[in-house]
């Protein structure tokens, strides 16, 4: 398409602005690697939380969410539990506090607080670095595919999606390298502001132009209902038969089983803690454990406007683009809904603001991922094994090199990734299966040692990478239990077959992090040194807050969705539930946060 000169000017102005920000902040970021990767632990929690939310507000994820709401309706609001999105509630309630008490820079460095710094502990650290690198590349390839498809529709030059992706990712790399975490956070705030404005505008267009009757005519019975039975119960045959085939391909027809599997997988992954990516980096960058919990809590609130945009795009596509999509038959490409709607319904000026906002969303996710990935290569590889006595400036320069290396590998894997949905499914359901068991055990079982952690991580990653080749017919969600059992058994058996960690390490971790779980033997030894020590007795309260928090988070999604769908009665119920859950969390979580 041909962009109007006004829209082109807005986009170019935005791109130049973020590069200037990177240049301006380069001196501040280059003081040392603590400043470069964590902003010197000086950034306020609400800024980090907004930045974190902005990093999750990406083009690729938005395209996927538009797809699931289009196909699955209100029930699609549950499908992000595949990630699982409610891991933010676990972080908010207690895990961010546990993590921040360590005072380290990366997840790999954190291994030195739980295991020895030699032998099995060293292997544990290496396994985290390997996982971090693989997951970062997975997310970059996921983003690569989405930004390429998006740009091909809107930019006027006759370039391939991969070429567009390389150009845009290269521009983003410039300010990431120059400004480090400072640059990431400041540009994230700009990006969040743009995306919020755009989200409200898209929601307004949908509400003003489309009535509930128009939506009902374009969707099957039950599409606008959150409730479901054993089966999904959506029949698109009389409207768009190819959608039924996509539901079958996704493997989500038996919806009750899917939800149970998502909850099972999601709770285990959430108990394991955040993966070594930008989410963990934001936690470590906060000023205190209490602020880390508040930072994680504000993320769910900041994502509320995104659902105005997603639902707005979806209903516009349902009402106006269904005939065109239906004509594609089995070749229907739901990932193109978002660009189709923008191309046909957004006026000049607003188009430039919207494209700049969506481009910003991609850049926000990309810059955070690159910055987090580079931190592992520098802190856990270069500083630990190659140059242990380099100057702070040398480590920062190596951070530049590491960032470029991560981006290049992301380019390569992005070009061989088949689709957005393929990459997303593999990341959230396959790769995370290998991460879950050893990381769940590291918090909650004192006997896990470095060898067991390493064995569980490596075996899990090998199975996660090999399962699609050995059993291609198995969905990523169905493959999760297989990966979980193999990595879990490996962790347990290797730990029992090798010596336990040194008492000094276990007691130091237990008294500083103060986890609940199976820590009886360590607790008894701590009491011998300090009879006044109190174990963490907040397990029941934390679990109640998690259940309430998941409902709270879901209503934060449903409120904007019901607004766009103009479902007044359902909106009233959602707002009431939101108010009740907010009150409970205020009394049972916020008021009980410790000042540290």
Helix content: over 70%
Write down the secondary-structure element order. HHHHHHHHHHHHHHHHHHHHHHHH
In total, the number of strands is: 0
Main sheet?
Answer: none
Number of continuous helical runs: 24
Which structural class do the helices and strands define?
Answer: mainly alpha
What are the low-pLDDT stretches, counting only 5+ consecutive residues below 50? none
Radius of gyration equals: 24 Å
CATH class of the largest domain: Mainly Alpha
Name the beta content range.
Answer: under 5%
CATH superfamily label of the largest domain:
Sodium/glucose cotransporter
Architecture of the largest domain, CATH level 2?
Answer: Up-down Bundle
- The 3D shape can be described as globular
Q: How many domains is the backbone divided into?
A: 2
On the 0 to 100 scale, the average pLDDT is 84
**What is the CATH fold-level name of the largest domain?**
Sodium/glucose cotransporter
Distance between the termini: 55 Å
List strands and helices in order, with pairings:
Layout (H helix, E strand, L loop, with lengths): L4 H25 L3 H6 L6 H11 L3 H14 L14 H14 L6 H8 L5 H35 L6 H49 L2 H7 L22 H10 L4 H18 L5 H8 L3 H14 L1 H23 L10 H9 L4 H37 L5 H25 L3 H25 L5 H21 L5 H22 L5 H11 L6 H10 L9 H27 L2 H21 L8
Helix pairs in contact: 1-8, 1-16, 3-8, 3-12, 3-13, 3-16, 4-7, 4-14, 5-11, 5-13, 5-23, 6-7, 7-8, 7-16, 7-17, 7-18, 7-19, 8-14, 8-16, 8-17, 9-14, 11-18, 11-20, 12-13, 14-15, 14-23, 16-17, 18-19, 18-20, 19-20, 21-22, 23-24
């Amino acid at each position: 398409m041909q962009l109007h000169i006004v829209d082109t000017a807005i986009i170019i102005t935005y791109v130049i602005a973020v590069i200037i920000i990177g240049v301006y902040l380069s001196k501040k970021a280059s003081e040392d690697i603590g400043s470069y990767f964590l902003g010197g632990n000086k950034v306020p929690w609400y800024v980090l939380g907004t930045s974190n939310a902005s990093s999750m507000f990406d083009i690729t994820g938005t395209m996927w969410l538009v797809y699931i709401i289009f196909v699955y309706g209100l029930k699609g609001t549950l499908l992000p539990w595949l990630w699982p999105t409610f891991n933010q509630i676990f972080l908010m309630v207690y895990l961010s506090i546990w993590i921040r008490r360590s005072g380290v820079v990366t997840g790999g460095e954190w291994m030195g607080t739980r295991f020895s710094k030699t032998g099995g502990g060293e292997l544990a650290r290496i396994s985290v670095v390997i996982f971090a690198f693989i997951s970062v590349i997975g997310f970059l390839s996921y983003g690569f595919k989405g930004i390429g498809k998006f740009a091909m529709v809107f930019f006027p030059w006759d370039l391939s999606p991969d070429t567009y992706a390389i150009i845009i990712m290269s521009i983003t790399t410039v300010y990431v390298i120059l400004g480090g975490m400072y640059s990431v956070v400041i540009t994230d705030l700009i990006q969040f502001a743009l995306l919020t404005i755009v989200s409200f505008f898209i929601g307004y267009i949908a509400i003003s132009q489309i009535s509930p009757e128009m939506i009902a005519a374009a969707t099957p019975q039950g599409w606008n209902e959150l409730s479901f039975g054993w089966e999904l119960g959506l029949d698109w045959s009389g409207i768009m038969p190819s959608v039924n085939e996509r539901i079958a391909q996704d493997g989500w027809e038996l919806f009750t089983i899917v939800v149970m599997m998502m909850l099972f997988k999601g709770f285990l992954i959430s108990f394991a803690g955040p993966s070594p990516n930008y989410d963990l980096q934001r936690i470590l960058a906060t000023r205190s454990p209490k602020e880390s919990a508040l930072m994680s809590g504000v993320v769910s609130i900041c994502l509320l406007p995104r659902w105005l945009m997603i639902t707005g795009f979806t209903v516009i596509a349902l009402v106006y683009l269904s005939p065109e999509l239906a004509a594609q038959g089995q070749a229907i490409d739901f990932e193109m809904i978002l660009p189709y709607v923008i191309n046909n319904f957004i006026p000049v000026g607003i188009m430039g603001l919207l494209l700049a906002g969506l481009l910003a969303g991609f850049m926000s996710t990309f810059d955070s991922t690159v910055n987090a990935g580079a931190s592992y290569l520098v802190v856990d590889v270069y500083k630990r094994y190659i140059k242990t006595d380099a100057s702070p400036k040398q480590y920062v320069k190596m951070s530049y090199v590491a960032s470029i290396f991560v981006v290049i590998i992301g380019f390569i894997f992005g070009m061989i990734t088949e689709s957005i949905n393929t990459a997303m499914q593999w990341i959230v359901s396959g790769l995370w299966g290998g991460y879950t068991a050893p990381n769940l055990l590291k918090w909650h079982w004192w006997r896990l040692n470095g060898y067991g952690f390493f064995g569980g991580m490596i075996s899990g990653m090998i199975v996660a990478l090999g399962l699609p080749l050995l059993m291609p017919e198995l969905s990523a969600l169905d493959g999760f239990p297989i990966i979980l059992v193999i990595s879990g058994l490996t962790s347990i058996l290797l730990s029992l077959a090798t010596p336990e960690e040194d008492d000094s390490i276990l007691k130091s971790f237990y008294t500083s992090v103060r986890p609940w779980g199976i820590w009886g033997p360590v607790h008894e030894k701590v009491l011998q040194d300090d009879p006044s020590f109190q174990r963490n007795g907040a397990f029941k309260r934390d679990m109640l807050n998690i259940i309430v928090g998941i409902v709270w988070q879901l209503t934060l999604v449903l409120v904007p969705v019901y607004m766009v769908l103009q479902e007044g009665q359902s909106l009233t119920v959602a707002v009431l539930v939101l108010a009740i859950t907010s009150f409970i969390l205020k009394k049972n979580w916020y008021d009980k946060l410790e000042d540290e």
